[in-house]
Amino acid sequence: MIRTRTKSALNIILLALISFFYACGGSSSSVETSVLMDGPHQAEIKEVIHTNAYSYLLVEENSSKSWIAATRQEFEVGQTIYFISGMAMENFQSKELDHIFELVYFVDQISFEPLDLMDPSSAVPHGMLQASEKKEIKLEKAEGGITIGELYADAQKYEGQEVKIRGEVVKFNEAIMGRNWVHIQDGSGTESAFDLALTTQDMVAVGDVVVFSGTVSLNKDFGAGYIYEVILEESKLLKDL
After folding, report:
1. CA separation for the pair 14, 36 (Å, rounded)
2. N or C end: fewer C-beta atoms under 10 angstroms in the chain?
3. Is residue 73 pLDDT above 80, yes or no?
4. SS3 label, residue 31
5. Edge-to-edge, what's the strand order for the sheet holding 80-83?
6. Is 158 a residue whose pLDDT tops 80?
7. What are phi and psi of 157, to 5 degrees?
8. Domains of the chain by range and CATH?
């Protein structure tokens, strides 16, 4: 299905993704460390298995079936998906499923539209992607804090400062590059700037209403494709809402 070609940048991204899987309960006795890539792939979903954080997909491409895995999102049998690259892992055990996949390809990014991923050089870094659509959320800002809209409207003013923001958790990724990654919304902001990412050592869950205090960084590049126009770093979860 997929031929092997080494690309160092994609290796870094996919290794970060795999470390994310390991942190949440995966194990493997054998790992193929080369990025497997021969251009864009178009495949049809034949089976979907969801866990709390991931989706395992049995896909068919050119009459060949393979398992691929990615961070969880909504997939349906019969859908056509598009992706560029994957990293092969043999005898990968999902502890949550209590199942061993003889071979599974860890895919960094999946699209439902063929134009999104046709050119590998045009793939959008993780941080440039919104966590989700703007939700119907209306929250008052924390006492002594600011809203997400206020932060985006005058980001230069807040650069390097510690701010306090209340929001609802819309996405949570645990233990990537030594930190947890949270996306929050509070109902403020514009149609293109309404979702705020932050890094923290604290644990939260999607749907939690939280208040975080963190330092504002602009145009932050963490490597491995994690680039953020605005992000709160070393954020701490405050108990008083």
Report:
1. 10
2. C
3. yes
4. strand
5. 26-36, 86-94, 99-107, 64-71, 54-61, 41-50, 80-83
6. yes
7. -65, -35
8. 8-123 (2.40.50), 128-238 (2.40.50.140)
